[in-house]
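User: Can you recover a sequence for this backbone? Please restate the input before giving your answer.

Assistant: Of course. Working from this structure:
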């Protein structure tokens, strides 16, 4: 393919200068408003509508608590799920992602993940090796190894 043909423009073609629009910030579904209580104290209200159209209005003494609830409600709305929570953890982002992957790979048996890790550690914690044996031979070797571990 001739690359110069791609860069040259025919005389009857008009180049259009199209400017890329800057992405607009998405409107917050839930907003925080500051107000004064009848007792004179300042409070923060998180208000908005959920997916079912139900009006949400919750008051907080501290702005940080209101901001956390706003993020939680926004996340619920975007995920379309009812139960989400922001939880403190000592895990790094990488550790969280690996944990999520492991749970997803376990499928319906995700609650047995600890058993799988224990078994892996008992077997030496090594990566599974690939041998050139046929499938039948490797399955037989695996069955023997697992039966030794189980007993």
């Amino acid at each position: 393919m001739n690359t110069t043909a791609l860069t040259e423009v025919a005389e009857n073609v008009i180049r259009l200068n199209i400017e890329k629009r800057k992405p607009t910030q998405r409107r917050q579904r839930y907003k925080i408003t500051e107000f004064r209580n009848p007792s004179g104290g300042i409070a923060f209200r998180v208000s908005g509508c959920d997916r079912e159209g139900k009006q949400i209005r919750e008051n907080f003494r501290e702005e940080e608590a209101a901001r956390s609830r706003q993020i939680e409600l926004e996340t619920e709305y975007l995920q379309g799920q009812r139960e989400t929570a922001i939880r403190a953890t000592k895990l790094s982002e990488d550790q969280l992602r690996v944990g999520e992957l492991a749970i997803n790979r376990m499928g319906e048996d995700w609650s047995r993940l600890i058993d799988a890790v224990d078994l892996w550690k008992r077997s030496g914690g090594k990566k599974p090796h690939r041998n050139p044996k046929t499938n039948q031979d490797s399955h037989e070797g695996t069955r023997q190894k697992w039966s030794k571990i189980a007993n």
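That completes the design. Residues 116 and 143 are 16 Å apart (CA to CA).
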